[in-house]
Amino acid sequence: MKAPSPSLSPWQLFYGAAHRLRRQWYRNRARRLPRPVVSVGNLHWGGSGKTPLVAAVAAHLRDRGLAVCILSRGYGRRGRGVRVVSAGQGPLLGPLLAGDEPVLLAGELPGVAVVVGPDRHRAGFQALHRLQPVPDIFLLDDGFSHLGLQRDLDLLAFPAADPFGKGRLFPSGRLREPLAAVARAQAVVLTAVPELDDAGAALAEALRPYGFTGPGFASRTLPGAPRRSDGVELSAGARVFLVTAVARPDAVAQAARSLGLEIAGEMRFPDHHAYPPASLARIQEAWRNSGAEAVLATSKDRVKLLGRLDAPLAELPVRADPEPAFWKWLDGEVERIREKEPRGEGS
Length: 347
Prior knowledge:
Helix content is 31%, strand content 21%. The protein is of the alpha/beta class. The protein folds into 2 domains: 10-66 and 136-220 and 321-338, Rossmann fold (3-Layer(aba) Sandwich); 225-316, Rossmann fold (3-Layer(aba) Sandwich), CATH 3.40.50. The chain has a 9-stranded mixed sheet with strand order 3-4-2-5-1-6-7-8-14, with helices on both faces. A 5-stranded mixed sheet has the order 9-13-12-10-11, sandwiched between helices. The longest helix has 17 residues, at 10-26. The radius of gyration is 20 Å and the shape is globular.
């Protein structure tokens, strides 16, 4: 595995310089919360396997006995301000008010709180005052580029299908920050690998020329049993109409086929699509014409489609499965940051 050389085009150089200035501006302005903050983010525009990794890390910390609160921007939601999506007992809000991924996480993670807000320092303080139990640790969802909040640990997810995003920034590549930004991370995780081997370590080595000094780990993405909304599991050979609004729809289709499902038709929308009435009408007509048993959607899409389609809706869940060495490293790092001197209220 070898990372590409930095692009020297004028646009890429200008874009990279703008990111450096932004980081410098926030260097002495970022605020701190009085609890440890672990960030899970990426350098790519979507499709990095970040959300399943957030869910896996949150569940692991919860199972260690910590009161975990996920802080998210709530991409695509209506309105501003801070909203509690879950106090640990499931979603309190729908995707229009909370965003699709926060609602998904709230539904998948009993015992984990989810709070959304554009200012995640403010969201964290409101969580400390409004939640019971009071959070022991914050998990910053998609937090790598959120420079206004200091964090104790930065994890970066890289998709195995395209780990380096062509080495170029948007629009000619898939990177939202230059690869040199990886120097700010403490660990990198190569997601959706076919097997847990040394690919994570190889990724870390490939990023050394960009200033990265931490460890690298590999993580599989495993599909779960597809189920209809009434709880009935779809058997192998079932005909489904696949609907996706994700960054990597090909991976979803491949996962469905790997479970023995027959895709009778498919409709793809842009990532985070809100599914207005016109889209729902198109889906229903196409489903009827396909003769499929059910409409199959990802977990992220299901929260936006549930109760809005006149068709049986089924979910294709996925989960991240990092290598054992990742959990050993994470436990050690969390223990280290929690042993620090107690912090004040921050500013």
